[in-house]
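new request in #modeling-help
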Amino acid sequence: MSTGEKYLAAAYLVVFAAVLLYLVIISLKVSRLERDLAELTELARRRGDG
Amino acid sequence: MSTWSRNSSWAAAVPCAAAALLLLGLGLALFWAPEDADQGISQKIFYVHVPVALTAYAGFGWGAWKALRLLWTGEERYDLESYTAVHMGTIFGVLTLVTGSIWAKVSWGVWWSWSERQLVLFLILFLFYSAYFMLRYSLDPGPRRQRSSAVYALFGVVLIPISFLAIRLAEDLIHPVVFTREGPQMSDSMFTTFCVCLAGMLALAGALYRVELAGKRIDERVRELRELLAAEPVRQHVLTEVRS
């Protein structure tokens, strides 16, 4: 692999890695929102029962 | 077709279009577009660096447009939209600086050149919008924060045309000028590849913008719901007291 090819691969991989990292962050955020919603649903249900 | 159905179809279409265009762009850049006579294969960084930079400008521009809408109409939803667009612009700004540095290293032998006005102006633009977040989070949520953030986002957009003009006004340049008044200075296959990559990058930014905005809106509603549920026992207690 030539030097030019290495730098080219690096530039493309940086963008790919950034998109991948963003997807990981978003999936973590969705998991947190799911937990929050489950907690709030449980709270509302208990209020309804009580 | 219902609004929900149209929205969900659109929400699915944008990421699919982004993936298809980016994959096509990658294929065209690597296997179809010719190598540059001077720079060789490293010139193909152009197909990722320039679309990413233009997408960053688009993010900042979109953020400024939403900020203007907020100041014009006073509708609160534009605040979150402006913030999300600036957020996107900043992410693509980081990618512009990183891919540009990689290209600079292989072409010029240095990671950064302070004598290049285009680079320095882009860095100023990026730092200006990075400070946007410091301003935003230094103020309490509310109309004052919304207006201050909107005015700041509008000021920043002035730097975009300056950044474009700088490269054309400067004379001692090593940063290439590809788009001139005579049109793009590249072959048709290079220009087609560039357009596909730019469309893919803009679609990707659009998809990320929608996901980020939806996430922030849900986050806000969950917070409101939590506050409502927390306030409910107090309200019940007050009502009981009043009735008795």
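bot summary: The mean pLDDT of chain B is 86.
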